Known about the structure:
It is a single chain. This protein is mostly helical and 75 residues long. Helices cover 76% and strands 0% of the residues. The protein has helices at residues 3-12, 21-36, 41-44, 46-54, 56-73. Helix 4 packs across helix 5 (56-73).
Amino acid sequence: MSERRHLQARLLGTDREDSGCDLAFAVLDEYVDAELEGRSIEARLPAVAEHLRNCEACHEDHEGLVALARERSGP
C-alpha cells in the first residue's frame, strides 16, 4: 500500500477499495444517472460507492446532484 493510501486509511477510515475524490468526481454524473434509472451502479463502481460512503464532501456533492436531477426531471 502506498504511503498516501496508508495515511488515507488511517486518517479518513477508508481503505484501498476507495476510489478517491478525483475518480468519484469524474464519474459522479454517470453514477447519479444510473442510480436514478434504477441500474445497479454500486456493483459496477464499488470503489466509487465506497468513497461516497466515506468522504463527506463527495457525499454532499452526490446528494446535491441527485436532488438537482430529481428537480429537473419533474414530478
